[in-house]
């Protein structure tokens, strides 16, 4: 019996390592060079099926995060630098420190540091629980 338990434990451990490695690879692919995302907080909301998630995103000069969507609203506050946002159906907008932006759920958008110094934003998301926070769009 203990031999069977050891084999089962070994198989489960290997499966967990493989799953963890796959998740890390997915996260690495979603984060372009020159972009650093720092998760600050994530909490369930009083609205069933929703959660709030805050992230600091730092962009090196010239760094860009390509077209993507979120399964909920994104509220952006630019902390420093200059960021250009492309939101589907609207002309590009350049925001500077202190500027804010609201992006509706499911809206395709992209961001790029158009300045010569680091740019940073505080992104607050109100998301549907259980869905990926970000989906890349071709």
From TrEMBL:
Family annotation (Gene3D superfamilies): Jelly Rolls (2.60.120.10)
Name the Pfam families on file: Cupin_2 (PF07883)
Annotated ranges, domain Cupin type-2: 56-120
Classify the source by domain of life.
Bacteria
Arranged from A to Z, the UniProt key words for this protein are: Signal
Signal sequence interval, chain numbering: 1-24
Q: What is this protein called?
A: Cupin domain protein
